[in-house]
Amino acid sequence: MSTSAVASSVHSLWTTAAEPLDKIPAPHIEYVQLSPVLIVLGAAIVSVLVEAFVPRKGRYYSQVFLSVVALVAAFAAIVGLAAGGYGSTKAHIAAMGAIAVDGPALFLQGTILLASVVAIFTFAERRLDPADHGHKVDSFAAEAAAVPGSDHEKAAVKAGFTTTEVFPLALFAIAGMLVFPAANDLLTLFVALEVFSLPLYLLCAVARRKRLMSQEAAVKYFLLGAFSSAFLLFGIALLYGYAGSVSYATIAQVVDGSIATVNPALADTMGNDALLLIGFAMVLTGLLFKVGAVPFHMWTPDVYQGAPTPVTGFMAAATKVAAFGALLRLLYVVLPGLTWDWRPVMWGVAIVTMLGGAIVAITQTDIKRLLAYSSIAHAGFLLAGVIAATPSGISSVLFYLGAYSFVTIGAFAVVTLVRDAGGEATHLSKWAGLGRRSPLVAAVFAVFLLAFAGIPLTSGFSGKFAVFKAAADGGAGALVVVGVISSAIAAFFYIRVIVLMFFSEPKADGPTVAVPSALTTVTIAAGVAVTLVLGFAPQYFLDLANQASVFVR
Amino acid sequence: MENLIALLIGAPLLGAAVLLLGGRRLDKAGHWIGTLLAAVSFVIGLALFADMLGRSADDRALHQRLYTWIPVEGFQADMAFQLDQLSMTFVLLISGVGTLIHVYSIGYMEHDERRRRFFGYLNLFVAAMLLLVLADNYLLLYFGWEGVGLASYLLIGFWQHKPTAATAAKKAFLVNRVGDMGLSIAIMIMFTTFGSFAFGPVLGATGETSEGKLTAIGLMLLLAACGKSAQVPLQSWLGDAMEGPTPVSALIHAATMVTAGVYLIVRSADIFNAAPDAQLVVTVVGAVTLLFGAIVGCAKDDIKKALAGSTMSQIGYMILAAGLGPIGYVFAIMHLVTHGFFKAGLFLGAGSVMHGMNDEVDMRKYGGLRKYMPVTFITFGLGYLAIIGFPGLSGFFSKDKIIEAAFAKGGTEGWILGAVTLLGAAITAYYMTRVMLMTFFGEKRWQPDADGNPPHPHESPKTMVIPMVLLAVGSVAAGAFFEFAGFVEWLEPVTGFAHGHSPLSATTVTTATVAVMVIGVGLAYVQYGRKPVPVVAPRGSLLTRAARRDLLQDDLNHAVFVRGGTHLTRSLVYVDHTLVDGVVNGTAASVGGLSGRLRKLQNGYARSYAVSMFGGTAVLIAATLLMRAV
């Protein structure tokens, strides 16, 4: 490219941007179709106002009420939209091409909302720790801004402060997650990513116990998240350079050659495959970071361990759903023409993720880290379904996400129950003999572990079977073999925990199992119910996922 | 009416569920619930029976299809029942005798703190046994077959605190597995041959099938029958099964479950009719067991084990009769029913004696009990007369018919079988008289029990006595009733019937039967009635000693199967330890080692994590570009 050409293109960029403003059409927003997101966002804003204006005493109850009502209303809106045919026949792209309203989007949003409702219940749990200075306490710091161990903190505890800000933060995060899998252009994708990531960084930092660890986790998460966002953003820029547009549909058309030029200003770079491939790989990095795929997974164990356990459960379930939704849309809508380019790369990622997660999990001694590595392995299994590149691949991933998120939240909710003087007793040695002391809790946890391991008659089996079948039908037989091998490796450490709980002698100074309030009980019961229902009678939900497996383009 | 069939099974099944899941709050009422539900089943059975009598002979079978049990295309089995005359006979026997034994158990198990559970198991047994005889396909029959096996296992080992009971239960279970294997293989062959499990398609298509296949099916069915009905060579478990509570011995190990093998063979009559070789083996097994059980029965001092030997021997009669084909099926079933009455009665009598004698089972420590337990004595005595075939009592009619049919088999076989059955009748008379004399006559040889309490024999409570009386009535009258009410005509539409042509006239056979019976009784009287019975058993002849050890069956099993199996296992364990474990442990260790090494990468520094991400992205980009370049 000659110097003059560069100069002229720069000039044309300037002139394009300097077009008169009246040419920008007034945005057309389909409020009804976007109502789930709008309800949650609206509630989040009201929630901030509650923090500002409602007296401290009333905040907890108003926040819990507001959050639950908003999430349920948003879910009702999803159901309404799906019943109105927006998941199938009336699927289209709303908000000036920014947000897709289609089957996968509605299914994933519904899953995120349901998971969020039960996760919010665990946020609101105040029965597990004994009251401090006569005030009920939850999992969050009295005042997150206070330096751990300082007099300021002690005063805040004494005054009975609680971080009710977690509710607006969670609502913002949920709103972002709702947009993420529905985003239909790269900028919306990025904005949604930031909208749900930033509140999560904060949520990780506000644990009541082990505050330093929690803050360290938050900082790590933030740094690495910012790093990955940078990759994503750079990738977006490159893709824009390639296609002259950030819209998924347009990029797809440029890729398959049905549009020659979009933006005359970018005539020099457009259609340059190097930009496409490098940009794609960088966007992929951003998404694989969020799903926790190897080698972008390293934040997962540290953050899962350090974050308050209710937040870990929420994050592990809802983030994964949102991120896989976005990944699916990117690969299936934007890059179907590139299948032969991305499949081998994703094969590699899936294999190292499955094996890496399962193998490293074996030597873990902390239950939260163990579950973190388990979530990495599960990300690998999900990637196998993504790679299938068939409609059944989409539906199997949708089903798997629904099944997995309930097991995960349930499992982390059980982790919050097992406590000793220092808070949650997460070291595995403390769990020895739990089955003797609290058979019910141990049995429930065993159900979740069996579901993680993919034992038949649990949702884990139905999900894994669907994903592997889709992968095998999609020509990824070798991947399925690796998947089964890593499932076998993974089964080892799940079963080891069961053995530990039921066949070891309890320790004398072992932890006690707190009796939770109805909130956590409901969460765990919902987890068990979904696990068993999707295990015994998965057909209805598989059909539902099947019907929801068509992306609008 | 056919809708009632499922209720027959449903009532006791409900009982089992309620009693086993209900927990301790049902301890007080459990036995009544169990008994009531067994009785409900019996009443429904009677209603169905009355209904069946109201219809013409070829229109008596009822069918009920509940749902498709296994809805796999090309492999379909229904939860469906068939109630014909054969099933009806069993239903009345199982629920009738079953109810009586439930009543008896109320008294017998009164002091057992786990009585509720006992009744739960009994109900489970009744339900499973009814399922076995009501199933309209072999797969469902197999379900019931395994169900009774389970109930039998649970009940033999009911007093699991006794190691002998636990071992006996395990033994019964293991030996039965061998037979069950036969049944499952038979069903597999059936499915591949006929493409179905249902009685109709399987039994209806025997005409178009090669004799070889039918023989194979028949032999496998026989293996199954041998296991369940304690026939040689799978008879070893029955004696030990007497470790269970006596009502269990009466119901399961005398009257009903152990006759399931006979049912199986008679039900599969079409297969055996078309496979004469299999039939011959059936008769041989029957004949051998008949003598085997009888000889063992002569040597046992344990009253229940003597009766167990007798059960084996009597079932041998039935199996033999079933092997004779259409000339024998009806009589096999007839003997089965009469035996159900008198053997159950005898066991209940034995239980009553034990109840009065501090649970002593050694007959050498009984003696002279007739004065102390008059009702038990009379009812047991009637059962005794019935089993030895005293003219006019039920055993006389049914056994006589089998002996006649054996002769009617014809040729040398007929003579041999006839002679064996006659010999068996003589030995039966001998060992039963021995039991009778040692228990109720002679001197008192009572010994104090382990705690030093001398026995105070007394008559048992009403709940125990009434069933004994009713069964005694059956022992007396059933044979004559069947003979004159037309049992043959009743069953003929199902099993078929052919008149045998015996080389000896009916009168000759009857006379001979009575004669050998008298000889048997006489011999026993000379040995045990005329001179006192020693409390400690004399050493005895070689045969006696062998018979006390169940004719060395256990030793044979031990030498061949247990030791052979142990050696096989040891060599497999060796291979497993060195080769398989080596590979497995090696893999596990290397995965574990890898895990430990990979774990070190997770060092907690955000900078290292960022490097990993950076490197990962670089590899992603490189790989993507490379893919395009290739």
Automatic annotation (TrEMBL), chain A:
What's its membrane topology?
Multi-pass membrane protein
Q: What is its EC number?
A: 7.1.1.-
The record's subcellular locations are: Cell membrane; Endomembrane system; Membrane
In terms of InterPro entries, this protein maps to: NADH-Q_OxRdtase_suN/2, ND/Mrp_TM
Chief place where the protein resides: membrane
Record's superkingdom?
Bacteria
Q: Which residues cross the membrane?
A: 34-53, 65-86, 106-124, 166-183, 189-207, 219-243, 274-299, 311-332, 344-363, 370-391, 397-418, 439-458, 478-503, 515-537
Signal sequence residues: none
Domain NADH:quinone oxidoreductase/Mrp antiporter transmembrane: from-to ranges:
183-489
Functional description taken from the UniProt entry: NDH-1 shuttles electrons from NADH, via FMN and iron-sulfur (Fe-S) centers, to quinones in the respiratory chain. The immediate electron acceptor for the enzyme in this species is believed to be a menaquinone. Couples the redox reaction to proton translocation (for every two electrons transferred, four hydrogen ions are translocated across the cytoplasmic membrane), and thus conserves the redox energy in a proton gradient.
HAMAP family registered for this protein in UniProt? NDH1_NuoN_1
Name recorded for this polypeptide: NADH-quinone oxidoreductase subunit N
Q: Gene encoding this polypeptide?
A: nuoN
